[in-house]
Amino acid sequence: xxxxxxxxxxxxxxxxxxxxxxxxxxxxxxxxxxxxxxxxxxxxxxxxxxxxxxxxxxxxxxxxxxxxxxxxxxxxxxxxxxxxxxxxxxxxxxxxxxxxxxxxxxxxxxxxxxxxxxxxxxxxxxxxxxxxxxxxxxxxxxxxxxxxxxxxxxxxxxxxxxxxxxxxxxxxxxxxxxxxxxxxxxxxxxxxxxxxxxxxxxxxxxxxxxxxxxxxxxxxxxxxxxxxxxxxxxxxxxxxxxxxxxxxxxxxxxxxxxxxxxxxxxxxxxxxxxxxxxxxxxxxxxxxxxxxxxxxxxxxxxxxxxxxxxxxxxxxxxxxxxxxxxxxxxxxxxxxxxxxxxxxxxxxxxxxxxxxxxxxxxxxxxxxxxxxxxxxxxxxxxxxxxxxxxxxxxxxxxxxx
Length: 401
Fold this sequence. Notes:
Layout: E1 12-22, E2 27-36, E3 43-50, E4 57-59, E5 83-84, H1 90-96, E6 110-114, E7 120-133, E8 141-155, E9 164-167, H2 176-184, E10 190-193, E11 204-209, E12 223-228, E13 237-238, E14 240-245, E15 248-249, E16 268-270, E17 277-279, H3 281-299, E18 316-318, E19 328-332, E20 337-339, E21 347-350, E22 356-359, E23 362-364, E24 373-375, E25 384-388, E26 393-397
Parallel strand pairs: 3-9, 4-8, 16-24, 17-23
Antiparallel strand pairs: 1-2, 1-11, 2-3, 2-7, 4-9, 5-7, 6-7, 7-8, 10-11, 10-25, 12-13, 12-26, 13-16, 14-15, 14-19, 18-22, 19-20, 21-22, 25-26
């Protein structure tokens, strides 16, 4: 279905991305605000920006159970263009061919999703109009009929303000970037810049399609590295080989970050839906030790005794004023280095007594749960990240928010 109000194949939507944070910043998320429905019947929805999910979904009435969200739950009964997808339709066949399809009982095309944090959503595949307002320029909204999951059974144990997830991974042609490419002929690429937690103003953004791969003028550093090809997985696998702390390579053993060629497991996934990066022991332990050794001459030994950090964070200090922290970065096989911005090098939180604290912003991950490692959105703060889906590249520009 063609987008409403579209005059040509030029499509560049620039949306505001907001940071929501909870428990003094120990939990946070990045989300966009859209409108679902048509004209006067449109309803606001807040969706987490998630490069680790293949499918966009949101809570729908009547849901049982529902989790708390800040805006009213979307009511498909009040949306005249809401269209459940019938069994046997092209979109339903695509969904049912994946691990997310759960059959067509009841004459509807059903899905089910679950996440590592215990959250889940079950419901039916549908289409509806979504308005994309050009937040920073024309303020003109375009409306597109897009596929999404209408969730009638939803669980989320993590505090959130959001209605659901904006899935940007590309295994499914039902993911919005891929759908724009197949249905409308747009570039499936996108780019975003996430503002640091607690930042004011909260000025992150995301651009879809045309314009997504154009470098930001006046920002000189522009680096590019390939996305690893993992067949139909759809995730953004990064070819990481080491970390750098200060001016020194950490020296992670060879092969720790590699994907297992026998079963495709392992590797490093760039996952904006996860706030915190999670690393396996062979990567986490030497990285943590290198960071500690670089920090002790500046701030002394870490101290968690009277004001422990959030669960899973081992190295914490009182937050210093006007102290330059050592460089920290991801090193790729092609020798490119992604250096973290100043506020991305620590997890900042407030203790129960109101003290501002900071921790080493990585967590240990058990190999038994899943051998993949995750590069989360905290370490992307303040840099523009470009997902060039046409050429299978990830690029970045520093300090663009």
